[in-house]
Prior knowledge:
The protein is of the alpha/beta class. It folds into 2 domains: 31-124 and 168-173 and 222-402, TIM Barrel; 423-617, Rossmann fold (3-Layer(aba) Sandwich). Helices cover 34% and strands 11% of the residues. The chain contains 19 helices and 19 strands. Helix 17 crosses helix 19 (591-597). The longest helix is centred in the first third of the chain and has 29 residues, at 3-31. It is globular. Alpha-D-glucopyranose (GLC) binds next to loops. Alpha-D-glucopyranose (GLC) binds at residues 82, 84-85, 123, 172, 225, 332-333.
Amino acid sequence: MSKAIVRNTIFESVICLSVILVYCTILQGQTKQKSFLTYDTKAKEILEKMTLEEKIGQMVQPDYASMRDKNDIQKYFVGSVLMGGGSDPRAGNSLEAWTDLYDNAQRLAMGTRLGIPLIFGIDAVHGHSNIEGAVIFPHNIGLGCTGDSDLVEEIGKITAYEMKATGIQWTFAPCVTVVRDERWGRTYEGFSEEPKISSLLGAASVRGLQGDNLSNPLSVAACAKHYIADGGTTAVERQGRGGGMPAFNFGGEGLTNTRGVRVSLNAGNCEFDEATLRAIHLPPYKDAVDAGVATIMPSYSSWNGVKCSASKFLLTDLLKDELGFEGFLISDYSAIDQINRNFKEGIATSINAGMDMAMEPSRYAEFCTLLKELVDEGTVPMSRIDDAVTRILRVKIAMGLFDENRSQLADRNLHDKFGCDEHRQVARKAVRESLVLLQNNNKVLPIAKNAKRIHVAGVNGDNIGNQCGGWTVQWQGASGNVTTGGTTILQAIKNSVSSETQVTYSSDGSDVEGADVAIVFIGEERPYAEGSGDTGDLSLNAQQVEMVSKIKNSGVPVVAVIISGRPMIIGDILEKADAIVAAWYPGTEGQGVADVLLGDYKPTGKLSFTWPKSMDQLPINVGDADYEPLYKYGFGLSY
Length: 639
Ligand code: GLC
């Protein structure tokens, strides 16, 4: 072959390779947002103009509803506010009221000397769940059973849309906890008991919320939480009320249950080695960082006696240096207050450990004063302040908060699609995919849509608040038909059956005689959040067991549907219920449950948590040596 031909062949190959390389770079650019370091030049320019007080103001996050004087946003140059689980606008929870509240807070922040816009945080953990009329998706435990990362990404995208309709640009989600003990009140906030699903779906949620460009008007900043091993704490038996845990750490108030057995897990202590920490609890954070998560929230809990929020190894060495996290750390709600009875010492410890922003709902003024003292006296170096503020500014710049040609107030054109049917159909699909069929004797499921009479029983069958669970409109959620709209499962069944089918209902199972089939709702009948959900007893209560027995004894086939934030102890009904379905907390779109019970869709959910036979098996997780649960991790039947 002549030299000329060889030269041309090589030249053409180089061209082809270059084109491929450029194409991959473009693709890479499209599928993942830019590194936050891209924004450092701009961040440094802003930083150089800032006084120490203005820098410290960026590092504090009051609860807007708790601020006695909203003008403190200007007085302390506040860079962020939150509205915590129990904080609501005085004007109520309507879309308008929330949007006005966001705009008012933002106007105050932009009225400061440098006009640095606020980043406004909220717990939009299963949809924009504080706001009336928002679409409420299944809690993460249900999404974990779908195993569907595309669906979870789409849920993140819709949640971001409904958040931006109010202007709010930052959610304290996804919770990527790896839940190792289902007695924990936050079990339902986790996708799974093992790291793979938590990693897969946590990263998908980050991508959905943040999109591939944080400056997109429909993107929001995500927050992976609670770093680290919040779901790995050791259960502490509780005697009576209040014993054993400091009041303010939301630990172990415990569900009041018939047997009164209590344990504390929330905000507790993890007792295992670094190898276990890295194998079980770190992977979801690595994947969230790789997905470009903008913020991470350290946990209230401790690892081998050291508070996560006070650990330089965890916050700086492991997360920032080793995993390369480029965003910023936001403390949990008053978590710094729990480090040391001396608030000033706690602040010094946490900020020097690597905390960047302090969620101080009401002690924000004190925080600013004390941190300034700490810097003036050299306890907290200015370099640490500058690093924290640079991280915060990077994220704000990436979010477009400094784009001159763009308003930072809410875009009220987005109100048109807030809570729209298109969004609800995605939630309905998520409900369908989250259901796990545990038993189906005599193929009692699916139920014929033209059955003569279907009897629905149990409070959870006609109760939006119970089907949504905690973190819905209120911090602890609220039983009953909370003002967030939606479709109860009873209504959904009525919507689906044929015109000649009679659907009857009783909360206690009475009047069931003569029905073709009874759909009996059992499970947890009081929404809860955090420590108030810690419990030592996950048994069905006596009334529910009695209801199932009575209906079965009347000769009517029983389909038991469990509405709960976690697996429950159901041995008492195994022989009595013909079919058993785990529905978790489906959220506002109860129609998704009817879709599966009435056969429009087959159940596809697979357990992302091990289902124990009895309380004395807990904690029990896939991979354990003597692993004999009632239903194994990954179990799920279909039609
Ligand atoms: C809570 C929770 C955390 C939440 C924060 C703000 O105590 O631990 O998940 O994001 O406070 O409401």
